[in-house]
Amino acid sequence: MQPMTAGYPLQRVGMDILGPLEKTPSGNRYVLVLTDYFTKWTAAFPLTNMEADTVAKVLMEKYIAYFGAPDCLHSDQGRSFEARVVRELCRLFDIKKTRSSPYHPQGNGQAERFNRTLLDMLSIMCEENRQQWDEMLSFVMLAYNSSVNESTGVTPAMAMFGRELQLPLDIQMGSPQRNDTETLPNYIRQTRERINIVHEQMRRQLNLQQRRQKSLYDRKATQGTFRVKDLVWLAIPRGGRLHPCWEGPYEIVQTLGPHTYRVRHQERRRRTMVVHSDRLKKYVTQEDADETRRRPFPLWYGSGNYPKEQQPKENVTGPSVEVRDELFRRRGQCGDGT
Fold first, then answer.
1. How many Cα atoms sit within 13 Å of 143 on the Cβ side?
2. Is 210's pLDDT higher than 80?
3. Rounded Cα gap, residues 292 and 328, in angstroms
4. pLDDT tens digit string along 99-117?
5. 275 touches 244 (CB < 8 A)
6. Is the dihedral of CA 175, 179, 185, 189 positive or negative?
7. What pTM was computed for the model?
8. Where are the domains of the chain?
């Protein structure tokens, strides 16, 4: 796992589209989500469609106009984000546009994680009328950005602006007394000092969280590293199924990074694809299948101490040769590949 890091606000912003949701009376069906990787400040805007022109217009008029242009804008390879109008907007503001590998949502993890949170919060607030989710969206964002984030230890508002958002509870309970005679230069100096302290604490907290997440991810990862000319299976997501289907064999033609490869199908050799290692696993050749046939297929997978009544009386082999031949004649494998 290679975590995406950011060291200051708007250094890297993740962009994603959530939907389609239930159509509202205003015609909205989608949500454009923009999440700052450092502060975790998140903005969400309802959309009637996910066309590139609509995305670029909202990005300019409702995000860049209020917060300024980010250094880097990261998204998946959706057509809405890769269109010419979005590229031209990024060029105009000197925004570096990056993208994740196809079918690899972890590459845009910030926005993907918030999508799940947003759906949960909207479900609670729109329990009685789910067609009013766009009217509740601004209230959900107020609650999210004024809540302490586990990764940073502070609220997204404090991390972004150096102050907390004033909420109805602050008015009811009474907010801390402010010095209304303070001069602007003093306020700027104190705010800058406060932000520097908060950001330094956040960097330490984020580094700790990223190391912890990387350790957990690497511990669970089963994929190894591949070399050029290796043959692999490629996971192809299938709509409506619990597991992807595995297609192949593909050949590794180029290593682009620690976990990114360019692959080419053995039969469709003109076209290549850039994929993440999460979608690859070693291809089983016919020689491997022959070797598997010759190995005994155990009945007991425990510690090796068979109960007397369950002790095998003879060697038992695996599936018949005909069944295995049929399995390996297939061009793809589904589920876990067995």
1. 12
2. no
3. 12
4. 886 655 555 566 777 888 8
5. no
6. negative
7. 0.61
8. 12-219, 231-334
Q: Where are the alpha helices (DSSP H) in the chain?
A: 52-58, 65-67, 79-82, 84-92, 109-125, 133-145, 156-161, 168-173, 184-220, 286-294, 321-329
Tokens of 30: 């989608």
Q: How far apart are CA 77 and CA 101, in angstroms?
A: 7
- CA 327, CA 332: separation in Å to the nearest integer? 9
The CATH number of 231-334 is which of 3.40.50.1820, 2.30.30.140, 2.60.40.2470, 3.40.50.300? Answer: 2.30.30.140
Q: Given a cut of 80, is residue 227 above it in pLDDT?
A: yes
Cα 203 to chain centroid, rounded: 21
The pair of structure tokens assigned to 152 is: 């940073």
Coil/strand/helix, residue 115: helix
Residue 186 pLDDT level (bands cut at 50, 70, 90): confident
The stretch 139-146 carries a mean pLDDT of 93
Which residues are paired to 280 by β-bridges? 234
Distance, in Å, from the CA atom of 136 to the CA atom of 130, rounded to the nearest integer, reads: 10
CB 183 within 8 A of CB 191: no
